[in-house]
Structures are given as C-alpha cells and as structure tokens.
Amino acid sequence: MATLEKTLITVEATIHAPVEKVWQLWTDPKHIIHWNNASDDWFTPSAESDLRAGGKFVSRMEAKDGSQGFDFSGEYLTVKEHKQIEYRMADDREARISFVSKGEETKVTETFEAEHTNTIELQRSGWQSILNNFKKYVETMKDMNPMHFEISINANAEKVYKTLLGEKTYMEWTSVFNATSHYEGSWEKGSKILFLGIDHNGNMGGMVSRIKENIPHKFVSIEHLGEFKDGKEITSGPEVSDWAGALENYTFKEERGKTLFSVDIDFNEQYKSYFETMWPKALNKLKEICER
By CB neighbour count within 10 A (0-12 exposed, 13-18 middle, 19+ buried), where does 5 fall? Predict the structure, then answer.
C-alpha cells in the first residue's frame, strides 16, 4: 500500500504582548475556551491540558447551533516553557509551535502536518483564523481573567433557557447578587441590554451590554460595553468601566432530559472571591427554580 506524502503547513502571527503572557493564555484551558475558534459560529465549551511531555490534551469544539462538534485531542511530545510545544494529534499527525520573544512582542509560529480530506488552503486559513483570534484575545484582554462555573439541572435545555432569561425568573435567580436585580432591553442578538440594581447608596446602577449571540436553548454570549451610573450610560472616555469588553457566556448541554448549564465570565481580580462565593449560590437558585 502506498504511503501518502506528508505536507507541512505553517501559519504565524506577531502578538503585542510579552512571551510570558502569550504562553499562559495559549496553554491554560480557562483561556483556551475563549479564543479557540476559527469563526464566530463555532466555540470551545471545554478544554483540558496536562502540559508536559507525555501529557494529554483535549478541546471540545462545537457549532453554536449544536449541529456538529468534535474533540481536538492528542499528546504532548515536547514542552519547553515560553519557547516550544510539539504534539501528536489523535490521527497521528504532528504539529510544532514556537514562541519567539521580542521584548514586548512575541512571534508565534505553528507548523502542522496536513490531513487529506480538506484542501491545503482551507486548512491553512482555518488554523490562521484561530491564531488570529488568539492574537486578538491576548491584545484586547486588559486585566481580565476567565472563570468557569457549571451545574447539572434536572430539566430540559428549553426550560433552563426560558427560566434563565425570563423577566420574572431572571429577577429571582439573580437576587442572590442584588435583591433589586433586573434587566431592561432585549435578549435578541445584537440588541442593547441594561443589567440594573439599586446599590448600597440607594442609586440605580449596573452594566450597559449587548447580546453578542443568542442561540435558543444552546448558547448566549453577553458583551459588556460599560457602566450605567448617575442615570447615564458610560461606554467611552476616561470614565468607562474596566468591565468594557468583558464577556459573559452561557452554554446549555442537554442529555436525557437533564441540562449541564455552564457560565464562563471574564472578571477583574478584585472580584474573584466575590464571584467564587456568589455564582455557585446563583446557580443553585436557578436549579431550584427550574426543578420546582
């Protein structure tokens, strides 16, 4: 039997960030789920990585409409911190990633063995798109960090989705954060929406956001644009909130009548302990409402 000749494809990008940051965001699963997609209609709901020679990795990649998905998995062959990663994919193809530090910039180069189903150009453009998405993620991240929460709910995805977003039930499950929590606006894709509540000084405040994506019963992505304060929407200028650009994503995975509901959020480090305490309480409240 003839052996197919291996074809190598290379993609690269220069990222305006030091190599230490680039390496962390490339290798940490909490970050991988935010950038590992070639187009806006795909996303990575989960990722695992044992970053060492002989360690395994897997990223679950899915279409947001739930029509298809696959595991991108393999084994690390070489790991040189801040310099190089080599790995073998599940189909035995190999790839190499190099990180070259240039002070405040880092050049990332990926070389991988092509598969024989799709054209060379399609493969190159797909991998380049993911690398470009990574570059954008690194350069626009500011001081945000990702955080993940999930809970299994004994209800189908449609009920969880409607409970999550319904005006009255939204106020109920988010009361854990603020007793006066509510929203004004629409959950339709592209729409502006305000998340509001009365603060400890008796003033109405909150976030100005837009719905980046809304696929019913599957996936919702909220992009925070700024802050609502003193009756004004502040989305630009020196007073704009540090939350501007942060994402808050909801994922619904139904199996046998139950739903694994996941929340992935960007957060400022100062809110870490608060979210670690309050989000599990909010999800338990959501579960209680859905299952009653």
Answer: exposed
Q: Do β-strands 182-185 and 192-198 pair in parallel, antiparallel, or remain unpaired?
A: antiparallel
Neighbours of 32 (CB within 10 A): 21
Nearest to 286 by CA among 186, 146, 165: 165
Q: Is the pLDDT of residue 3 over 60?
A: no
Task: Supply φ then ψ for residue 3, to 5 degrees.
Answer: -100, 125
Give residues with Cβ within 8 angstroms of 198, minimum separation 6.
Answer: 178, 180, 204, 205
Angle at 272 between CA 266 and CA 274, to 5 degrees: 115
Q: Answer yes or no: is pLDDT of 4 > 80.
A: no
Contact between residue 244 and residue 224 where contact means Cβ atoms under 8 Å apart? yes
Which pLDDT band, with edges at 50, 70 and 90, does 192 fall under?
A: very high
- What pLDDT score does 2 carry? 47
- Pair of tokens at residue 153: 């709910």
Q: How confident is the model at residue 240 (pLDDT cuts 50, 70, 90)?
A: low
Q: What are phi and psi of 141, to 5 degrees?
A: -75, -25
The helix, strand and coil proportions of the chain, stated in percent and rounded to the nearest 5, come to 25, 45, 30
Is the distance from CB of 94 to CB of 75 less than 8 angstroms?
no
Q: Is it the case that residue 243 has pLDDT exceeding 80? A: no
Rg (CA), the chain: 21
**Cβ atoms 11, 124 nearer than 8 A:** yes
The rounded mean pLDDT for the chain is 92
The full DSSP string for 82-122 is TTEEEEEETTS-EEEEEEEEETTEEEEEEEEE--SSS-HHH
Cβ burial of 140 (10 Å; 0-12, 13-18, 19+) is exposed
Other beta carbons within 10 Å of 50? 12
Six-digit token string for 191: 């729409």
